[in-house]
Amino acid sequence: MTRPKVSIIGAGNVGATTTLWIAAKDFADVVLLDIVEGMPQGKALDLLQSGPVEGFNTKIKGTNNYEDTKDSDVVVITSGLPRKPGMSRDDLIATNTKIVKEVTENVAKHSPNCIIIVVTNPLDAMVYVASKTSCFPNNRVLGMAGILDSARFKTFIAQELNSNVENIDAMVLGGHGDTMVPLLGHSTVNGTPITKLMSAEKVESIVKRTRDGGAEIVNLLKTGSAYYAPAASTALMVESILKDEKLVLPCATYCNSEYGVGGYFVGVPVKLGRKGAEEVIELDLTAGEKAAFQKSVEHVKQLVEVTEKFLVKD
Ligand code: TXD
Q1: pLDDT in tens, 164-203
Q2: Residue 193 and residue 59 in contact, taking contact as beta carbons nearer than 8 Å
Q3: CA-11 nearest atom, ligand 1
Q4: Is 110 in the active site?
């Protein structure tokens, strides 16, 4: 039986670490591509040599040639600049639009039936670039952000309440940026809403820390941005798709009538299976959450407008 094939474009921190998470779970073979010569080959070989230690047989190939990515089932796009301290995700838009466009053209040419998962920032706008460039059906283009934002939220809740992370449900919707919307009513520990387990001030400070979660790490690292949790989140999406697990996870997904978005990719809970984005799940939101979500969608729209300008210029 042939194993599913995943190609990861961009063999930097997120790309290489996503390869590691996928390899360790041993459910697909991986091609790791970068424009830098030798680097993806070197990282792939190093990762491959972890197999005998960890007991996985995942084939991992590093390359600079899109021919090697041919007929992938899933392609993850991580190529592009990460932010530096003081930069917002949106500051990356000009450079990364160009990179994601060029990469997507190659991806669509070599793997016309694949499902694309975009990771590059500014996330919601880069998913739009991949969608527009590939002309793939909307169910086959997704972006990773909500799983990471929700994981950050869950981490801070677990730290505060000294709970097992597996007993925590939490959901962060909206764009991947300052306007993201942590849903308090859907954030529970063993079924009890966190608003009953901690003070309003504590909840507020955890929400703020979640929103600033990426920047906190950028400021500590000084060069580059977070990658362990982003890579774990990306690998989870790949796994749910290829194993047809139908996990409902918050991902940047095309929404038209759903949540009243009106034709944009934005973070919502979506069922991930072999067809990609199989069903957007509409949660009951409070009036406040609806307003915050709409504000987040407006920001995504503005980013898409800016991206359009760079796409036209190109
Ligand atoms: O939640 C999320 N979506 C994110 C997004 C969480 C973490 C990181 N996020 C973004 O992913 C970040 O802001 C960046 O835009 C990307 C990649 O982050 P990473 O930390 O992996 O950046 P690196 O280590 O600099 O790696 C980027 C690689 C690097 O090796 C480049 O040589 C390569 O991308 N690159 C390319 N590869 C192929 N083709 C082209 N054109 C290309 N240009 C750069």
Answers
A1: 999 999 999 998 888 899 999 899 999 999 999 999 999 9
A2: no
A3: 30
A4: no
